[in-house]
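Q: For a teaching session next week I want to show students how multiple molecules come together into a single three-dimensional assembly. I've collected the sequence lines for a complex. Could you give me the predicted structure tokens for the whole thing so I can convert them for display?
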Amino acid sequence: MPVPPLPDDVAALLARPNPAVMATVAADGRPVTVATWYLLEDDGTVLLNLDGGRARLAHLHRDPRVSLTALAEGDWYTHVSVQGTVVSVTDDGDLADIDRLSIHYTGHPYPNRDRPRVSVRVRVDRWHGWGAAAQG
Amino acid sequence: MPVPPLPDDVAALLARPNPAVMATVAADGRPVTVATWYLLEDDGTVLLNLDGGRARLAHLHRDPRVSLTALAEGDWYTHVSVQGTVVSVTDDGDLADIDRLSIHYTGHPYPNRDRPRVSVRVRVDRWHGWGAAAQG
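A: Of course. Below is the structure for the complete assembly, covering every listed component.
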């Protein structure tokens, strides 16, 4: 699988508010998937943001490896998967990160202000593209 | 997380040709995600079908645990994740299974007839729903 930096067309695809699914590994080693918002940052890392009570946070503290597949809206034969490693887990105390994600996906700040949120930054270690994002 | 049998509304959602992402665990323990077709069978198992050369087949022989997240088309806040165990891996010699999947998703038999395909059947061990598929 190719390694970063991401080609411009792949980065451009990932920069859109695509439907996406992330996977973590649970304590017993089983994979766990869930739909997620994500944001490709200018430095090439991927921002995720979780409710502070999620079991996935425990997964990520135990094993920082994650995988994320983003589906191109309206053409999900085109999809990009990135595998990476969590490089930071921080409280999103002022909800600035979840608001960035929410605005990216919905155009509006995140409506639920009463739950603690946690920001997770993932360094992309490798990636794989299909369809219009297939590597040469 | 709830265990099967799936409630009727969740089964009905999974029965549609939804965009979906599956996760397996690689030899080094990292999670690996990729977009996939799937079919919920009448007996409650989930049919997947892979190109015979995929690394994921080796993953599944080593660790038969998979996770799949299906996104409701046009409303991907509604999504269902199932975690399960591979109960059979069989050659799809006559391409009957990939044709069933292809017809389910595209209305047409699978166009690529020259690659070996493998059918994977997954027993659902637990599931989790969000949005319109949230459990009570």
